[in-house]
Each structure stands twice: as structure tokens, then as C-alpha cells.
Structure of Cytochrome-c peroxidase:
Amino acid sequence: MKKCVYLLSSIVPLLLVSCHKDDDEYQPVDPFANTKAAFGDNIDPDNLYNYAGQTVPGYITKDNSGANPITDKGATLGRVLFYDVNLSSDNTVSCASCHKQEHAFSDTDVASTGVNGTTARHTMRLINTRFSAETHFFWDERAVSLEQQTTMPVRNHGEMGFSGENGDQSFDDLIVKLGNIGYYKELFTWVYGTEEITEEKIQKALAQFVRSIQSFDSKYDAGRAVAGNDGPPFANFTQQENQGKDLFLRPPVFNQNGQRINGGVGCAGCHRIPEFDIDPAAKNNGLIATLRGIGTDMGNTRAPSLRNLVKADGTLNGPLMHTGQFATLEDAIAHYNVITADGNTNIDPRLIPGGNGQKLNMTQQEVSALVAFLKTLDGANVYTDVKWGNPFK
């Protein structure tokens, strides 16, 4: 008598049969048994969400994926890793604890809570991180790629606690921990062909998931698709929104004292349309405060895309800047309206025309118009799309 075990799986292209001599029963072995037990219908290896083939408007040309393009399998594994509290030393914190889908993958708290304290800077939104010419990440650009960035919070003592210092376990301990979890044995084999877990594999999967988070269903995108370029008024915009767009696009004209005497306010010089990504050459934006209010923090030169700053009801997706000190768009605009450059050795030269801190002298009408335009950059789908949601729920 033979007992044959059938392995039916998308992991391998062939039907594998293991036969034993005790009986004639045929017992199929499910290679995703642990995955199904953990996630139910939230993850179906045979019916994956579309991460790799999402529609991207033709006018979006920047892409920092490099040698790690998005795949449906890789992003699915990345989604699990992103939401898994097992990546923290005490099983309480995941990437999603600070980057919350309902807030455009940011945090409404000024400082996010980790396993051993709070973050040193406000949590940056993760919208459209793929569509940027800037390949460095974090406010101070200390990560040279998104891949490197993904595990740096895991290795941080305060955030996720696998630093290998201050009594923490090491990242190698995390790899052993994940290797003992059944669904990771299955998912890493499915994605990489072997259940071996490495930091590089974790980084690639997380980066693919984060890059998949995109937002192009805004009022701005609807207008841009019809207009063909950003210059003319958009037919679907109000007069106020078009005025704000013009102010955002046109550079200011300054006198010798740094006072604006004509032109727009020049936001697009650093926040470049249509991706609204930060210019890689940008330096400090004039804000050198720290989140703790002690000392200075002049090394911050990166910013997230300006898309999805606000929700449909106009509320912010979290306070603004690395300090989280601005609670409204008007507050942020007021900062740029009058720039003080004293003591800032890293300030962007575009903010100090003629060596003086810029004074845009914006009227209330101009401020309101610019706010109205910035609100057109909000899309709706990113807040609710299941493929970016928590697979453990």
C-alpha cells in the first residue's frame, strides 16, 4: 500500500508526489496553510491585488524604483511585513503604527510612539514615494535608498527596538524570530524560492509595497489630464484654485531687499509639478527647530510629496514639517511668507534672494488661493484601498 501526498502550489510549476507504502490514500498538502490561517481571505496567493500594473498618468515621469521594480508577490510580502508587529522587539509596533493608511500613511501625533520612547522627528507621509527624483530618504536624507530606509526604524532603539545596543536584541535575532513564523516560511519561499530570510529580502519587499502606494485620483489630476500641461487654467478648477495654481507655479520677482514686488510665490521651484516631489538639490527650508525644542536641526532637506496633505473634509493628515509644529496649511504658508535666515548655514539659496530672507508679502486672498490649490492634490482611493490595508484584520 502506498500513501501519496500531493503538493499543489503556485510555488513550483509541477505536481510533486511523495509516496509511502502504508496505504493508497492521497492527501494534498497546502503550501499556504499557515498563511491562510493567519490572514484568511485577506491574502490569496492565486488572486493577488494589482500592485505592479497600476495605472500611472502619462505626465508622471519620475520613478526611483531602480533595480527593485514592484511585483505583485513582493509587494504582498511587503504588505505583511509593513503591518506585522513581530518586527518590533515587544510585538507592539509595526511600520503601520506610525504610517497610518487613514492619514495618508502619516501620523496625527507630532511624535510617533515606539517601543522605547517617541520619534525624534514627525512621521513623514508615504504617498507617491516612488515618483520622485530624490532617492535619499528621511528628513535628513540619511538613507541612500528607500530599501535602506525600510529597516532603519527596525534597527532603532526607540522605534522598533532591534538595535543590538542598549540591551536590545540584534537584527539577526529578528531574522531568527521571523524564521520561526509559519507564514513567513511560506511567503519568503513563494517570493524568493527559499524560506531563508535576509535583511535585503525584507528591504526589497517593504520597498516594493511602499512604492506601490500611489495617489492620482485628485481634482488636480483630472484637470491636468484634460489641460495637457500645467500652464493654462484647468477647466474643472474654480477661479480661486486656478489663481493658487498660478501662484504655486510662477517664480517671484524680488527687489534688492528680498521683498516680492511681482510674480507668484515660487513653490514649484522646490516642490516640482506634476509629481510635487522635492528637488534633490533643495537645502534647508528655513526651519531649524527641533521637535524637542532643544538646539537646532539644520540638516533637514527632504520633504514628502505635497499630494494628500489634507482629506476630503479639508483636515490635515497630520501636522506639518519635521517638527510637526504647523497645524494648518495657512501656518506653513506663513513660514515661507517671511523667511528668517539668521544662523542657518544650510538654508536653500532660493529662500534668501540677494542674501536676505524672502518676504513674499502675500495677501489674504493669495494665501486662500494657494490653500485652495493645495487641497486639489488630495485623492480618495489611498485611504480605503484594501491592497494597502492591514492584512491581519
About this structure: Residues 219-375 form a domain with the Cytochrome Bc1 Complex; Chain D, domain 2 fold (CATH 1.10.760). The first strand starts at residue 3 and ends at 7.
